[in-house]
Amino acid sequence: MSTRTQADLVQEVLENLGVLPAGQLPQLEDTARVVEKLPSIVASVAGREIVYIPDLNAIPQQYFIPFSIIVAWECKDKFGLVGDAAAALKEDNANAILQLRVMNRGRPTFETLKSDYI
Fold this sequence. Notes:
mainly alpha
């Protein structure tokens, strides 16, 4: 299975935010802004049962694009994204959440089934 790294994710997020022109290298400050929020974002999407990503240096390929959109949405305030760009990203975020939920519905959780005996 093909995976992507945290560095790939940060670059994709910055491109989604319009901070990074295609083909350019990200600035250290921009990278740091995204990286500092990643643990909280990963915990949030796992807590909301959207997707669980245990290792940011092994993001499954099928989750990469929708997850990068969610991360961009969560980082928008750090980069001052407002107006039409923020509205478009909000819609993209909602679609990304739906895509990830569809990909993960019906998947085994491997949790022990709790039963109530009467």
